[in-house]
């Protein structure tokens, strides 16, 4: 069956449909990862987006329930060069085509994804419509132009949990080997804000020595403090951080009271909460091989990234140190506010794109919270 991807600037790509028959709009972005397509599909950070994979063949390892990062695929559509006709992996329980069809996600294959990626790098991310229902190109381009942009959508509230809950290792994931050695000392109470969190984040917080309570993105600061947390975690998530005003307000009420660690969208929301600014990147950072330098040690890590916005380095308040930079474009990849015991990074330390370069950040967060518990880290008294 024929399918079409129409972009808001009038560029159109024709290919073959897979997954569900349907029509969806979203921001068209590309990801340069060679592996991990199921984790990408189910990452809530991709809510509102049509994802283009630059790897030439996708689908060769199938899908399985254990590798989902959330309850279901979160993307609006999925675009690949070649869809593998066979899934060769002992853990696979379902092919990619069947997986997307079950979850009503339209896919498009047999197009020149290199040409599409080069177009997005030149023009920047664009709104688009993927359709296996219509051949009316003019209508689809018009739909792409009229669809609401990411910055006008509150996607965080869409993907966040509805009620607080205590996280425990799912029974179907207990086969997995621990990624880290158990942290020394007593377990600490951590409240994790769910802005669109990936499951592996909660698993690694648990392994780091935290008992994790997950709360919705709009959970008020006073309600969070009532849980008597010894640490606060701010998760990844989709969209423009400035639209999540309720999250910024909640974090503003928590900064300095409890040690805090934010990643990805959580990094941006923490920055906005302390008075910094963010801006939209031309085509974002989405892939599994972005080099990031830790300015404190000089060490360079290979990181997994998925974000379309970044923190404006010059806007960070006095006393907040930039700790990490992206070696591709020099953008801010992390900061530390020592007075408020606030640690934040832009990339995904819970992901393992091959090396486990960034896992130590969870240990750093656990140590920061442990020092606060012992009284060696300054924090404002909880009112």
Backbone structural class: alpha/beta
Q: How many DSSP H or I helices?
A: 10
Q: Helix amount, in percent?
A: 10-25%
Low-confidence stretches: 378-383
Specify Rg, calculated over alpha carbons: 21 Å
Provide the β-strand percentage band: 25-35%
What's the β-strand tally?
Answer: 19
Profile the largest sheet.
10 strands, mixed
Please write the string of helix (H) and strand (E) elements: EEEHEEEEHEHEHHEEHEHEHEHEEEEEH
Mass-distribution shape = globular
Q: What value does the average pLDDT take?
A: 93
The first-to-last residue Cα distance is 62 Å
Characterization of this structure:
It contains ten helices and 19 strands. By secondary structure, the protein is α/β, with parallel strands linked by helices. It has a ten-stranded mixed β-sheet with strand order 10-12-11-13-14-19-18-17-15-16, sandwiched between helices. A seven-stranded mixed barrel has the order 1-2-8-6-4-3-9. Helix 8 packs across helix 9 (265-273). The longest helix has 15 residues, at 360-374. The N and C termini lie far apart (62 Å). 49% of the residues are buried.
